[in-house]
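To whoever is on call:

I kicked off a structure prediction for a single chain this morning and the downstream step that reads the tokens threw a length-mismatch warning. I double-checked the sequence; it's 290 residues and nothing unusual in it as far as I can see. Pasting both halves so you can look.
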Amino acid sequence: MKIFTLILLSIFIQNLSIVTFDDAMKNLKILETYIKLYYSEKKPKDSLNHLLLAYIREGKYSDTAWTIAGGSIPKDLVSYIAKKDSAQNTRAQDCRKYGDILLPSNEKFDFVHFFAVMNGIEFGNSYTDYYSALVGWGGDGAQLIQDIKNFEGGFNELYVQANRYLGIQGQFGQGDLIADLDAPIILKKLNGNTFCSEIMTNYYKGNEWKNRVKNFVSITFPKLTDRKKIRDVIYERYNSDVFIHILECQYGVRSAGIAGCYLPGDFIPKYENHKKAAIYAFADYLDKRF
């Protein structure tokens, strides 16, 4: 009985820590206002979109690899927002700290990861190139392989394990999955004169989010005209991504090359079924929800 009570208490505390959608949008709207003030005062070379997306992304993803993928922000922007928060008694900076937030659809959604994916796509100026896969579904696909790499068995057994993780737990759980799917859709709607908070509110409090898979596929895989080929198209796209090879090397499923993981070697044969199971699970997730 005591153990059961502790489990319930743990779940209750975990749910309390999840930020509500309305609270997140309130702080995001304040942040957008401050960034527009910064833009009008400082006249930086960066676009308003970039300032917003990269500012939030750097709260969680700030290493060299992410700077290459998503660019940087003016050095004084962080202190500028902090001073505005202090003077106005606001919490715009919290947008850089959020983990999962609770959407109106009762789904969990990784807030900073969502902005990081948009930032990578925006900075690479492409919805379909290698960077767009690396910062989103492709990078998370590599993490799904890592999640199941210690399981043994053939493809069918590993496919079952991949589906136990995808959108549920591990490194490609629901928070990352929803963020990966929605990021290119929201970015398509965003421009320098539009508040992201307004777009997100309309998207998640309306019905458009229900079509996220169809819209994600049309944006990310525009040449996919035959659904029967969805596994092959997504697997080929994933498998040919040289940047994802670096992640696979870091995760121990691809061998290190002469210069280490920055020029990785071949995929390790014993993990081939793990890779196919993980990427096919993602492709089938999309196919079932068209």
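Update from on-call: the warning came from a stale cache, not from the record. Cleared it. Sanity check on the structure: Confidence is low (pLDDT under 50) at residues 1-16.
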